[in-house]
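Example is below:
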Amino acid sequence: MEIDGLTDERLLVELRDALRMRDELLSVASHELRTPLAVLSLKLDSVLRAARRLGPDAAKLTSGVETAIRQTARLSRLIDELLDVSRIATGHLTIQPEDVDLARVVGDVVGRLRELIDRRGCSVHLHAPSSVTGHWDRLRLEQVLVNLVTNAVKYGGPGPIEITLSAGDLAARVDVRDHGPGIPLDQQAVIFNRFVRASRDSRGLGLGLYISRQIVEAHGGTISVASPPGAGACFTVEIPRRAAQ
């Protein structure tokens, strides 16, 4: 077949070149944005400390700076997601397995998100053995868990969030369950795809669950969701206790 003088083979080559250029541009732009954003974050932290020293008279200034810091942090997360998408597209998403206690990782994630949990009026119930060890990439698993717990708190609250960690001889499993409105059945089939947002998600690029799936699969594991109508959502991660090399 020929379209305006271009053969199928030529069209395919041009499409590949266009995709490669897109991924390269995405990577370069994301890297270039990180440095000024880091500088801005440091400056805002400095201004916030100064504002707090002024006491109650600077309450309005303090509140405004805190809002700016939250938005800067959100922008930083979006940039990190774009970088991860670029790495995935170019085959450069790698994991660095080490000996990890997953029970401790889950506990650390809940502690890190405590401010968000309290602000949303949620309660988190963690069911886990004292230790679940394995050979995983700690930072990447933290990234997955932060995404799942944050989503549960934001879109399942206010209400209880249940996190259950269990393990067998060969694999570990984490369930993150909320009791919110749930996810429509037609969206459950595509929610782990790139740039897909569930109807309950009004913000973001729709990349968090896509990146989480790539990380879990890079460990040789699986991630899934179960969400009966009106009964909340339960995201399940299962990973071998020794990550795939």
